[in-house]
């Protein structure tokens, strides 16, 4: 059976697109207050056009107290003054549209800010008409509300501490899977769903081209029982794991189909709809992205991002086993081969930089960053490039706790310190490897003091390596990471086999080389990439005699001449054979 999304006659535009994610706070500051903003984006649209991306996804710019850098929204229909105005946003959208770039907005509707008027009303009294718009619960049976351990369940929040906050005024608790300033909306209530759909239609009517839906598989959830006390993501504390109970709830597909019909009907295929779905299995992925089911276009899966996590999660990083990465990626490729669609990503604002994670951010930074880009972009799916990834930006390498800004990192450190099971050195190492701030240092535009990001003091430190790693230098260097990403994006636009071809993994057991083919009719591309800092020779089992080089990441890359292929440190080749 072949996937209807790979039929050129009917496939939607986004199966051939490359998306660029902007985290506005760290992209470009225009007014010298040290925080990136929308007028800053206007200064950099030509960078995006030159790179050749088709879509920009904006992390939230809505009104927000900024407890979680905008993922805590107090007004869905306005822009936060930190970032500018609705008129600025209109200008940005217009400037991007003029360059043929579509715009996708972040949609954060699992929770609001506690300062959103809906929550302000909801918490005002137990009989307020909006009380049921959030998850309010009494204390655990037999316990005194407010006393330690009286929370309705034992769950730990994604950001450390309990998921239930006690509200003195009404003597009840509200649920917040993230920070206590991010109360979870109750999607069981039809009024909540209607309010969300109305807001979404308002955005589409303003001319945006889709949504990236934050933790969308948490909208249907169970609110009990207690979670397992285990070493896991929430292990640094006396809390239970809420994940399995609150993720992929029983009404998820019903809600998404209802949303689809209420908001997207009549615009099918025109919109890019990508859901962030931690913990989704391939089976879930198929259900969520099979176009026949009218839910989403694609999802962000997390399996490949967890492969270097130790038992205590993102702050407990271990070396990647390449065989596991290959197995995971190819399972998803195969799983959505006949129905559904993959999104492809190495980075976003929640993940450390890929060159520091799976590559080498020292001697072979350029080689490993271009190799990693090649491997990702040659898979089937829609690739996402996170700001700075196209420059091979590295982790922050902060050497003091004071440099960190992210709520998840700060709360993790505070909680770990109260438990006292890790030394400060261990804690700092955890942040250096795993903190989300690694992705949030300002984009490195040039070699000037604040990397061209701001004339003021940046809200988070600029990486000193901007003197050598920056967009200006890379534009002038044809071998740079930037130009390699530009070529990768062009390749997807030009070659139907990159967009639609079937994926077959080669050498699944090889610990160092990632190799696969993409096939469409008589066309075949062979991709081989070395994940090590020394040369490797492998037998691909495919005669490459007479093969034509499509792309390589060394200035003198050449097509191999037989099945036996030698790859230099972090070398990647794509050949037509
Ligand atoms: C996922 C977002 O990507 C992350 O940045 C945020 O903290 C949580 N969802 C909560 O909205």
UniProtKB/TrEMBL annotation:
Residues 21-440 form the Glycosyl hydrolase family 13 catalytic domain. Coiled coil: none annotated. Keywords: Hydrolase. Gene3D superfamilies: Glycosidases, Golgi alpha-mannosidase II, Oligo-1,6-glucosidase, Domain 2. Pfam families: Alpha-amylase, Malt_amylase_C. It comes from the Bacteria. The keyword Hydrolase applies. This is Alpha-glucosidase. It comes from Microbacterium alkaliflavum.
């Amino acid at each position: 059976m072949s996937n209807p999304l790979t039929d050129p006659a009917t496939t939607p535009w986004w199966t051939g697109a490359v998306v660029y994610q902007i985290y506005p706070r760290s992209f470009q500051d225009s007014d010298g207050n040290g925080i990136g903003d929308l007028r800053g984006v206007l200064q950099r649209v030509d960078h995006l056009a030159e790179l050749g991306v088709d879509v920009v996804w904006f992390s939230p710019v809505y009104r927000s107290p900024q407890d979680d850098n905008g993922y805590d929204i107090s007004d869905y229909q306005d822009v936060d003054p930190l970032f500018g105005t609705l008129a600025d946003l209109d200008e940005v959208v217009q400037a991007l549209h003029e360059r043929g770039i579509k715009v996708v907005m972040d949609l954060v509707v699992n929770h609001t800010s506690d300062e959103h008027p809906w929550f302000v009303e909801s918490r005002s009294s137990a009989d307020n008409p909006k009380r049921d718009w959030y998850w309010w619960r009494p204390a655990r049976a037999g316990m005194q509300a407010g006393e330690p351990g009286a929370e309705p369940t034992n769950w730990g929040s994604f950001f450390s501490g309990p998921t239930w906050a006690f509200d003195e005024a009404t003597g009840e608790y509200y649920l917040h899977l993230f920070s206590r300033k991010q109360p979870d909306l109750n999607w069981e209530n039809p009024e909540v769903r209607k309010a969300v759909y109305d807001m979404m239609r308002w955005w589409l009517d303003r001319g945006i081209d889709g949504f990236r839906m934050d933790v969308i598989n948490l909208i249907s959830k169970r609110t009990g029982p207690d979670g397992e006390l285990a070493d896991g993501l929430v292990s640094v504390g006396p809390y239970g794991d809420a994940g399995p109970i609150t993720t992929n709830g029983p009404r998820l597909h019903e809600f998404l189909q209802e949303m689809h019909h209420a908001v997207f009907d009549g615009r099918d295929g025109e919109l890019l709809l990508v859901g962030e779905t931690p913990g989704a299995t391939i089976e879930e992925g198929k259900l969520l992205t099979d176009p026949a089911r009218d839910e989403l276009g694609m999802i962000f899966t997390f399996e490949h991002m967890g492969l270097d996590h130790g038992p205590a999660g993102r702050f407990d990083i271990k070396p990647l086993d390449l065989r596991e990465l290959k197995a995971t990626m190819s399972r998803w490729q195969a799983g959505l081969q006949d129905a559904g669609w993959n999104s492809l990503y190495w980075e976003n604002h929640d993940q450390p930089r890929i060159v520091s994670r799976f590559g080498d951010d020292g001697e072979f930074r350029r080689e490993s960053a271009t190799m990693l880009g090649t491997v990702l972009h040659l898979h089937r799916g829609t690739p996402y490039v996170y700001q700075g990834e196209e420059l091979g930006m590295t982790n922050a390498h902060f050497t003091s706790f004071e440099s960190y800004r992210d709520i998840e990192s700060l709360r993790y450190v505070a909680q770990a310190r109260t438990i006292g099971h890790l030394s400060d050195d261990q804690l700092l190492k955890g942040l250096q490897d795993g903190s989300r701030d690694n992705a949030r240092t300002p984009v490195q535009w040039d070699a000037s003091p604040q990397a061209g990001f701001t004339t003021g003091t940046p809200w988070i430190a600029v990486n000193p390596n901007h003197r050598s790693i920056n967009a200006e230098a890379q534009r002038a260097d044809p071998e740079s990471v930037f130009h390699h990403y530009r070529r990768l994006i062009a390749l997807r636009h030009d070659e139907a086999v990159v967009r639609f071809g079937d994926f077959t993994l080669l050498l699944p057991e090889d610990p160092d080389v990632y190799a696969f083919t993409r096939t469409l009719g008589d066309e075949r591309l062979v991709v081989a990439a070395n994940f090590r800092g020394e040369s490797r020779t492998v037998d691909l089992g495919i005669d490459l005699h007479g093969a034509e080089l499509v792309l390589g990441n060394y200035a003198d890359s050449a097509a191999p001449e037989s099945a036996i292929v030698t790859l230099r440190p972090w070398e990647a080749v794509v050949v037509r054979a």
